Amino acid sequence: LxxxxxxxxLGHEPILLLWMMGLVxxxxxxxxxxxxxxxxxxxxxxxxxxxxxxxxxxxxxREFLVLTQFTVSVIVIxxxxxxxxxxxxxSGKPLGFEKGxxxxxxxxxxxxxxKYPVIKTELLKNSRILGVAAASVMISTDQIVPHGxxxxxxxxxxxxxxVIRNLQVTNDFFEVMGIQLASGxxxxxxxxxxAGTAFIVNETMAKNRGWNDPLGKKIQMNQxxxxxxxxxxxxxxxxxxxxMEPLIINQLGEGGNQRVLILKISDKEVPQTLSFLQKKFLExxxxxxxxxxxxxxxxxxxxxxxxxxxxxxxxxSGICIFISCLGLxxxxxxxxxxxxxxxxxxxxxxxxASQIIVMLARKILWLVLAGSVIASIIAxxxxxxWLSGFAYRVGIHPLVFVISAALVIAxxxxxxxxxxxxxxxxxxxxxxxxx
Length: 435
Hints:
Mean pLDDT: 84
Shape: elongated
Order of helices and strands: HHHEHHEEEEHEHEHEEEEHEHHHHHH
Radius of gyration: 34 Å
Structural class: alpha+beta
Distance between the termini: 53 Å
Strand content: 5-15%
Largest sheet: 8 strands, mixed
């Protein structure tokens, strides 16, 4: 369920086998000893007189167990709902770039990297390939690491040493990815000096440095030094687990350190396009298999563990409700059986079946409602802790807890009603004559 490898060989794990056997024995003993000890503690006189003392004590234990079961049920239902809302928010949040119809190809051989200009020209001859660009790493994969310590001008023009993330791209990168410029210009195809002297920063970088006019600010990065020629609008170059950070972008020279090829393709005849790419790259790099991925799929995989956890919690909530209904069914059976004569007398006096069902369900529903309140408090803190792993997150709306509680209360009422209906419909003469 979590997508993790798991090997369970009990023959090679004798300690685990002993723990499992011990657990079975302990649970079996506890479940058998409790009713035996409880029943043996009741005096014969009390049992024959059918007093309420022992009955009330046992009933309180049953109430506590049902309260606990439904508390857990509401917790997992509420958590599952908020997880689903967060995943919907993550999948629908604008990232600042276009992720659809973008194919990512890793360039693994040095000689293939050196052939980038030729590869780009050849690929663009295909009418279904609308754009080609390259980058040192792929955005939104948490692979853009902070650069050593570039010297960056502050607003007064004084250079300061900073630790900032750096991305290297070719001059068609912003166009292919659909990233918009806020001010200034893109890297120029005609100015060969841009590869070593021009820098583009994101809006967060300009705000953090306090630049009133970012254009022309100096940046010295190892052997490269130059000025800011443009500012791009913020785009999420890391996953949404992380807040927006300053970013420095410089241009890759032709045949430079390109490691990732980004292709903008037409949404028509996609299989034919992929077949064309596979054929071409087997020519360019026969030593390696054709390795590609769609950008939107790669981004979705960043949140795969959260989606699996949501699925797991959803399944757990279903199991919890089922177990809770079993406990509630037993409690309703016990309560109905104890009040059989009372029900018969009420029917003789004119009570309807629906009134009797409501009477039997009232106390149990109060238990479920109390459990829902307790569960909402616990679930709030639990899901808030989970959401803290996202820099961009949905709010925890109280309506989620209301809906979760209403769902559980409805299930509880239906369970009690089904159990109580037969008794409520019974002939009162038979019921009263029961003893």
